[in-house]
Automatic annotation (TrEMBL):
Name of protein: Cytochrome P450
Superkingdom per UniProt: Eukaryota
KW Isomerase (keyword) present: no
InterPro entries per record: Cyt_P450 (IPR001128), Cyt_P450_CS (IPR017972), Cyt_P450_E_grp-IV (IPR002403), Cyt_P450_sf (IPR036396), Cytochrome_P450_monoxygenase (IPR050121)
Cofactor list: heme
Species the sequence originates in: Ramalina farinacea
SUPFAM superfamilies: Cytochrome P450
Name of a matching Pfam family: p450
CDD domains reported in the protein's UniProt record: CYP58-like
Family to which this protein belongs: Belongs to the cytochrome P450 family.
């Protein structure tokens, strides 16, 4: 019996391998054969090696040339960090999330202590929604009101759906913007010339540290605009590869045909660090955006931290407003001293949905050394 079963399994894997390597519609796409044979290749780097597959993909790009086309250029944080740590495992074992939700909370705490932060945050979102859903309102107050409108199908108005949506909104509205602000602070407060130049640019629109200024006014300031864009570029937003599918049409790329229904994905990291688009990509140079504008070059088309097209970030404009106004207010009011933080503290070394350093977690520490009075 066992020899027969072993023989059957061997034949199955042999035939499957032949199909994937030579007969599959994507078999002519260049790349390492082991990646075509099994998900285990990605699993090894993203799960065993903890989020390093993105750099294996970068090596593939260098070898196979996929990116050389010039035209293709508190609690919340604890919960976000834990979700990042689990993101690749959950991709390969999607039932884990359902299992964690079904387990008693004490058991989750023993098996994966950090996961309780995620569940607690979802419970809090559900609790707060339930506490206000019966209130009489004459107009829509929040996105949850829209999601629970009677026009939405009943199966899409469940508490579980709201908890998931709320978690996504919390992540998208906190950690990503916080990382950009942290990147800006780290670079700005270690470059005295850049800091003073920005303060000089801000003083005409903010005569005092507490002056009110609009986002539209701040957008017109070239150096601040360059600082925001460069901080976005090196904070990356989400580094995870977001699949896109052309359901009914074949795609052509360099003589290769990608059949309908094939998922295609890439990380924004590769565009934002492409040396042909951004020379010296690891250098923080806000002036590159000023220079590009002076030459009539639209460098913003390559700023994909919010993604692009119909699936780009819904909160993009809110994030921009927060970035411009927070940086301006902070720079005009405070002197900071960066401490216990180096470039390695924010340099991407792992892809956990958002870039993390090789060791520890992304963090910038600073002391307020002076409050500016005028």
């Amino acid at each position: 019996m066992w020899p027969l079963l072993l023989g059957f399994v061997s034949v199955y894997f042999f035939l499957t391998s032949i199909y994937r390597l030579y007969l599959h519609p994507l078999s002519k796409i260049p790349g390492p054969k082991i990646a075509a044979l099994t998900w285990g290749y990605e699993f090894y780097y993203d799960v065993v090696r903890h989020g390093t597959y993105i750099w294996e993909v970068e090596k593939m790009h260098d070898k196979y040339g996929f990116l050389d086309d010039k035209n293709f250029k508190n609690e919340v944080r604890q919960a976000v960090t834990e979700m990042s740590n689990l993101i690749h495992v959950s991709k390969f074992f999607p039932m884990l999330a359902t299992m964690f939700k079904a387990m008693p909370r004490w058991l989750v705490a023993k098996l994966r202590p950090g996961a309780t932060a995620v569940l607690d945050m979802q419970d809090l979102i559900t609790e707060r929604y339930n506490a206000q859903k019966d209130e009489t309102k004459t107009y829509k107050m929040t996105i949850f009101d829209a999601l629970t409108d009677p026009s939405v199908p009943p199966e899409e108005r469940s508490s579980a759906r709201l908890a998931d949506e709320g978690m996504i909104l919390m992540i998208g509205g906190t950690e990503t913007t916080a990382r950009v602000l942290s990147t800006a602070a780290f670079q700005l407060y270690q470059d005295e010339h850049l800091l003073e130049s920005l303060r000089k640019e801000l003083r005409p629109v903010m005569p005092t540290p507490t002056s009110n200024v609009s986002w539209s006014e701040l957008e017109q300031l070239p150096l601040l605009n360059g600082l925001v864009n460069e901080s976005l570029r090196l904070a990356f937003g989400s580094t995870i590869r977001s699949p896109r599918v052309a359901p009914t049409e074949s795609l052509q790329y360099k003589g290769l045909v990608i059949p309908p229904g094939s998922p295609i994905s890439m990380s924004p990291y590769f565009v934002l660090t492409d040396p042909e688009i951004f020379p010296e990509p690891e250098s923080f140079r806000p002036e590159r955006w000023i220079e590009a504008a002076q030459k009539g070059q639209n460098l913003n088309r390559y700023l994909v931290a919010f993604s692009r097209g119909s699936r780009n970030c819904l909160g993009m404009n809110l994030a921009y407003a927060e970035l411009y106004m927070t940086i301006a207010a902070f720079v005009r009011r405070f002197d900071l001293e960066i401490f216990e933080t180096t470039a390695e503290s924010i340099r991407p070394g792992r892809d956990l949905g958002m870039a993390q350093p090789k060791e520890g977690k992304f963090a910038v520490r600073a002391k307020v050394t002076n409050v500016i009075k005028e």
